[in-house]
Amino acid sequence: MGDMYSAYIQSTEHRPNFSTFVEVDEIPIIDLSETSQENLVSKIGKACEKWGFFQVINHGVPKDLIIKVENEAKKFFELSMEEKMKLKRDVFNATGYYDAEHTKKTRDWKEVFDFLVKDGIQIPSSDDPHDLGLCTQTNHWPQCLPHFREIMEEYSGKLEKLSYKLLELISLSLGLAGDKFLDCFKNQISLTRLNYYPPCPFPDLALGVGPHRDPCVLSVVVQDDTGGLQVKKNLVGGWVPVRPIPGAFVVNLGDIFQVWSNDKYESAEHRVVLNSQKERFSYPFFLFPGPHIMVKPAEELVSEKDPAKYKAYNFGKYYANRTHADFTKQEDEGKEIHNFKILD
Ligand SMILES: O=C(O)CCC(=O)C(=O)O
Ligand SMILES: [Fe+2]
Fold first, then answer.
1. How many domains would you assign to the chain?
2. 282 lines ligand 1 (CB under 6 A)
3. How far apart are the CA of 95 and the centre of ligand 1, in A?
4. Per-residue pLDDT reduced to its tens digit, 140-179
5. Where in the sequence is the domain holding 177, given as residue range(s)?
């Protein structure tokens, strides 16, 4: 294997082992058109407690819109590197095209394109608490694809709406008011991502995305029929595939919900394995709060018997640290929520 690939090689413990297949219950599938809200909330609560992952069907996002997103994403990633590099993401503006993301210091075998739901929002320029500087985040669009922007904006608008519905149901499942967290999203920095995983000549050594937990509130993802997304399930001792279901969205809880729930729910670890023959596309929407929000366990879930398990942290500063770490991954992994854990 030449040096040009060495950045992609996972350490032995993280290499996917294709020979072990874990036979377990399937990740729950939840029908959002179910008329009894009580049943729906109960099913979602169980899925969150057991997996932190579920799939939703009958979610109200039109199928033809998803097909348009798929077509535009394919056209985008087929553009020449020169065209894509015109939209390259940098440390100050974390939107646009990127092909060098690292998860836990190892390069992911993928290309991404990111755009914000709210164009022009400001986030802290650094994680230094004394630095009051802000940087404005602006979306970049490929000029050579005339319908791209309109389709992507429509998609992210629909996913934002679906995320609020899921937020409400998950909040109710924790015994909280359905709108408990809604105010956190006024200046949200939610992001839609297009992921392209090219076929990989050494799928047993590299990963499309290394093992990680999402730093957001929740993620809603469309995946194509290639498969590759897997969830870590310690109880069964391995990685469980999230089977592609045509037209379904995969939903997973992020770190913020883990903190809000005071560890009642877990932000599950997941990864993407590669395929030597087939490319893969996926389109996640990451629901993030505004940068001013202090993330801490919901007071309704904290008591003398069940004290807060996390110290409050400022989301904007946390996000700035993670974004910065993305560009300096070789030395710094960035903060994770366990850094705010209150140890007993
Ligand atoms: O490609 C996928 O299915 C999920 C990717 C993912 O986990 C992420 O981008 O955070
Ligand atoms: Fe993820």
1. 1
2. yes
3. 16
4. 999 999 999 999 999 999 999 999 999 999 999 999 999 9
5. 3-340
